[in-house]
Amino acid sequence: MRDEIAAEQARLDRLYARLDELKEEQITRRARLAAAEDRLCFGRTENLAVGRITLMRGDEPLLVDWRAQAARPFYDGTSPRLLLRTHGRRVIGIDTGPSFDADRTGRMPDIVATIQAEQDAIIRSDPDGVLVILGGPGTGKTAVALHRAAYLLFHRPALADHGVLVVAPSPTLLSYLDQVLPGLGETAVTLTTLTENAQSDDDPPIATLKADLRMAGLLADVLRGIQDTFPFPEAVAKARAEPHNRARAVYTQAVADALSAERQALEDQIEADVADTLAAAGIDQAVEDDLRRLGLAETHDQDQNHDFVRSTAEAWWPVLSPEHVVETLYADPHRHAAGRLTPAECDLLKRAPGQPWTTADIPLLDEAAELVGADGQRAYGHVVVDEAQELTPMAWRMIFRRCPSRSLTIAGDVAQTADPAGATDWADALRPHVGDRWRAARLTVNYRTPAEIMDAAAALLPAADRPRSVRATGVPPWRKTVTRSELAAITAHEAGRGGMVAVIAPDDRVAEMAEMIGTRNHGPGADLTAGVVVLGVRQIKGLEFDSVLIAGPAAILAGPRGRNALYVAMTRATKRLGLVEIESVERGEEVSRPSAPTSAGVPPREPRSGTSRGGTGHG
After folding, report:
1. Model pTM?
2. Would you state the pLDDT for residue 183?
3. Contact in structure between 549 and 501 (CB atoms under 8 Å)
């Protein structure tokens, strides 16, 4: 092995030497070359070295970018491959396959060295249209979607001009994966969540109502109702062809035209009627009075008349904010929603002005922004949506608004849908936007969740599509009832075993559980790189930890889509899983050895021996 490492080190030295030369020669590419510094070359076949960029010396390919067509033999299983373990510029080991024994770091790693054949096929599939990546827990949906974005940027350089948008359901997941694409040298990427600017969550019945597609038509009705109060209906009708704020100029011109026409008609009438009796009848003064009433009194300064008309019409057609439109609806839904919502639904929607915006409000504000033509709504060349099963019908409208080209990579699993208004069928979710013009690709191998944990979790959703776990640890999940002090002791014990520990709690008990175990690292702003973190069930999507303690599984199970939520929580663990209920009264007992699982959702199992069956990629 020492000779093999020395040979690989010599090859790696040659690659880094060429990299250093290029850094000096190609100043404009220096940032991209610097991004390739870490794990420049991560593997090879007999005749091919594969890494983060392509390196040439003349016509000789020293290193092939993993996204290039020439790199396919490294991934498609047609050639044996070696994986290099490196530290800086030094080779420290050679493997024939990835290991899953390493502790989690709190950040998603890239998987360029360990992409498997079924993953590679999806990454390199047709770049056009809408692709839905399906797969159960631990199959690597997120990683594949992100690497597909890097692949598209490599093969379509013009895409960088329009940018790629990556959407995640929570800030916690966003912080977990935000280094993947920069680590691959891709900077033309914007990462965001749908919860940005949200300060709270609605109760499930209210959130579900706000997620309903009827809200789109309702907001349009609200805006029309506001516009119906403006004078000159004919001008209003002309202006409605444009978003509200951009239509102001149309309305102003239409009002000016209408007033000018009215004035001209009045002058023509005056001229046609008994013109020779006008002076005697004092009609000139009457005309002047009529014109003054219309704001068009004769003046020697026609520009003054024009400015008066313009300022008056602009006052009649004010600039509106999205917030104003939504607040108008909420202030009196019985008035604005009659015919679209039931009286009971109107009661749910009603709220006083000035309340904090909720997660379910964000897609409505975006819808209103589209209606009024607010600034700042950027479109992208490609959109990646992670944990897409959580998107509501109104949120899908928000997503597709960002991608006029309808080029999207969507990763999700409807068996993991926890939002009451989330997706239960991909065709239903996508049909309003692309009809049947979408395709699906499925990942079938679970690289993250040990078989023992997956067996227990599968009891919650027996009808769900279950991926094949490639690992067994011999450590079955356990369940017991503990006191508050015992929870702290168990958490400390798990932390002492190494790796990342997550305590997953019902959303309304996160702060309480954090206090029990004595940590401030909890909630949306938690540091995932710390040893122990306390998260709610809404915040754990897409994450993974060495050890997971689910505190209060019965309460999670009793919540909206409780089986789905508990299924997700249980499948976050890569090594160890415990489910604990908290007693309200301290018993003062010593912490006992975790007992075997005994409740619904975690059926009893006898411990079984087992070792890793070999790994083939990151989940």
Report:
1. 0.87
2. 86
3. yes
